[in-house]
Amino acid sequence: MKPTLLILAAGMGSRYGGLKQIDGVGPSGETIIDYSIYDAIRAGFGKVVFVIRHSFEEAFKEQFGKRWEGKIDIAYAYQEVNTPIEGLDNMPERSKPWGTAHATLVAADLINEPFAVINADDYYGADSFQQIADFLTTKAAPDHYAMVGFQLKNTISPYGTVSRGICKADENNYLETVVERTKIQRLDDGNIYYLEGENPELLEDNAVVSMNFWGLHHSIFEEMRMQFIEFAKENADNPKAEFYIPLSVNTLIQEEKIKLSVLTSTEQWYGVTYQADRPMVVDALQRYANEGKYPPLS
């Protein structure tokens, strides 16, 4: 059975200044999502599931439905701020989204096979998709998940500081911990530091970081659903609390219900959080086109 690619695309792009999910950054107007789908097809994925808002539906079907029709199956799940989850009778009302694990849960009825989860606005590269596809087709199990980690040096921004989850794995390359570090930047001496305290703390260029690229077994949906019910009850009066995928996965690791393999990619990661990020992404995709890495996808 071919794995499924779940693309989290319900964000409003307020910091970007528009619907960045359909912004054409490639030489022929391709979006970052187009490159992800292309790489997923080459790696052997059989279906794409978009998590979007109802207000995005027409734009997404126009942008992606027509382009990829006949090349891969496409389905849509919908995450509004308060999309209900089965088993939670009194969903707390709030104005802030519930987070990436809630976004994953709304697609549960559409996925019955091992699947990968990615952000819509991140470029991960062909090697990353091939590694996760190989895992999902040969090793994924109810007690064995994976993540694609990236070398820190390939994820920092020249435009300011970033936050990254620094991963620690054991001798078998199973994830032990993820420590969130903020205000990460390469300084004038050429080294990368995080600047949380009074003195900069050195980080290794090749430190492995999580960029929200997960390889999961579909049995996670029931575990995640029960976790979310408890999380929503505990945070009913906390409008800023978000239920993230790393929180869900880490809980399962700590409960010794799963092990999680860390797959390390040497690809350059690109993201478009801010408009200032856009020219760098455009230049990179043009370079990849010139090198023959991608054909025109439009």
3D architecture notes:
The chain is α/β, with parallel strands linked by helices and 298 residues long. It has one domain: Alpha-Beta Complex (Spore Coat Polysaccharide Biosynthesis Protein SpsA, Chain A), CATH 3.90.550.10. It contains seven helices and 13 strands. The protein has helices at residues 32-43, 57-68, 100-105, 126-138, 220-234, 245-254, 278-290; strands at residues 4-8, 47-52, 73-78, 115-119, 122-123, 144-151, 162-169, 175-186, 192-194, 201-203, 208-216, 259-265, 270-271. The strands form two sheets. Strands 1, 2, 3, 4, 6, 7, 8, 9, 10, 11 and 12 form an eleven-stranded mixed beta sheet that branches. The chain has a two-stranded antiparallel sheet with strand order 5-13. Helix 1 crosses helix 4. The protein is globular. The model has no long low-confidence stretch (mean pLDDT 92).
